[in-house]
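no rush on this but wanted to send it before i forget. theres a chain ive been looking at and ive put its sequence and its fold in token form underneath. i want to understand how the tokens follow from the sequence so walk me through it. thanks a lot i owe you, the record is right below:
>
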Amino acid sequence: MIERELLVSNRLGLHARATAKLVQLLSGYDVNATLTAKGREINAKSIMGVMLLAAGHGTAVTLRVEGGDEAAAADAVCALFERRFDEDS
């Protein structure tokens, strides 16, 4: 199991487009993934779950991945957060 602390740094937070990118990215990996924020833990492969976090700009989230591709999945998610979900022009 790998656990990483992340910060939502894109301007709009985990809105629909950013959430879809995250879920689509994780769907390519053979892992169980959760995000924890504001006292809630959700399935990070679920669009509705991630949306229910209501994680806005500046929210700290914990990513936990477990499974055969956990290192690659964690690295890819961290890179997506660092790129601010490719929203900055």
